[in-house]
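Open question from group meeting: does this chain pack into something compact, or does most of it stay loose? Before anyone orders reagents, we agreed to write out a predicted structure and look at it together. Recording both the input and the output here so the notebook holds the full record.
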Amino acid sequence: MVAMHMGNAHMGHVTEAEFIKGCEACGVDSIDKWRGHLPTLRKQLGDKDMQKKMYTFTYAYAEQWEGVKKNVIVEDACGLWPVLLKNKCNFLDKWCAFITKKNTDGKLNIVTKDLWNMLYEFIESCDGKLEAAEDDGCWPVLLEEFCVEQKVW
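Structure tokens returned:
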């Protein structure tokens, strides 16, 4: 959340300009004020629009450069999803096991931005309950394969 307010471009790296931007955005100018502002940031995470904004931001924040392509590697995605979606999704462990197996089998190396975003939409559409998922034919193939494997469809 703090990185999002700072507009950090890369995970693990904060420029002085980004730090100042975050301080200004949060109205803080000392460590004590940052401590005092944390409950506000936590409360913001309860807002549905802020959750989606944070989820969307995290993809760009976690991207790895591979030549001219920017992607999130499977291992990083499986580390981030539980942090971002743990209270929204009852099948996240199964999903991460599924794509990790695809990665191990050499069938999936990265998580594209489309898959990242569509997973969020998928979770929203079934209220985080896999058994409530509907096959409307518009999900990425990987999500459809997952649902078939889980015997939902």
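Observations to bring back to the group:
Residues 48-62 form the longest helix (15 residues).
Helices lie at 2-6, 16-26, 31-44, 48-62, 74-85, 92-104, 113-125, 141-149.
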